[in-house]
Design brief:
With 144 residues, the protein is α+β, with helices and mostly antiparallel strands. The chain has one domain: 2-Layer Sandwich (Beta-Lactamase), CATH 3.30.450.70. It contains 3 helices and 5 strands. It has a 5-stranded antiparallel sheet with strand order 2-1-5-4-3. The radius of gyration is 15 Å and the shape is globular. It starts with a strand and ends in a 9-residue tail after the last helix. It is found in: Endoplasmic reticulum; Golgi apparatus, cis-Golgi network. Part of the multisubunit transport protein particle (TRAPP) complex. The heterodimer TRAPPC6B-TRAPPC3 interacts with TRAPPC1 likely providing a core for TRAPP complex formation. May play a role in vesicular transport from endoplasmic reticulum to Golgi. This is Trafficking protein particle complex subunit.
């Protein structure tokens, strides 16, 4: 099992943070185009799930393809965290909640040197996030 990448979007769709670990190859498009496509897909899926289930923010939590699983967390403030893993990871909900509550809020939101709604530049956040992700039981080398 492995973790491919993490996106953090604000409510307007701007990517505030991106990191990758075991991503085999890039998307073949510029990074901002990838961010726009990812956010657009999330927006559409969330909207579709809300219409079908009648549940708003908590209705859409994950989906998978034949190659990867996307785990999703939306906070009350509209922040959207997306973690892509391989198919062997059943749920990363607790990890996303930890990333948001214990890392993002503590090291970015409460940090007076990090301007609100700006891309995350905090080296401490990046280091602690990397250490946390590497400590997860499903972090490991990508299977061929």
């Amino acid at each position: 099992m492995t973790i491919h990448n993490l996106y953090i979007f604000d409510r307007s769709g701007r990517c505030l943070f991106y990191s990758e670990w075991h991503r085999r190859r890039g998307p073949g498009i510029p990074q901002d185009e990838e961010f726009k496509l990812m956010f657009g897909m999330l927006f559409s899926l969330r909207s579709f799930v809300a219409k079908m289930t009648g549940r708003g923010r908590d209705g859409f939590v994950a989906f998978h393809t034949s190659k990867y699983r996307l785990h999703y967390l939306e906070t009350p403030s509209g922040l959207r965290l997306v973690l892509n893993t391989d198919l062997g990871v059943p749920s990363a909900r607790e990890a996303l909640q930890h990333i948001y509550g214990n890392l993002f809020v503590e090291l970015v939101v409460k940090n007076p040197l990090c301007p609100p709604r700006a891309p995350v530049q905090s080296l401490l956040f990046r280091q602690r996030l990397d250490a946390f992700v590497r400590s997860l039981p499903y972090f490991g080398p990508r299977n061929p």
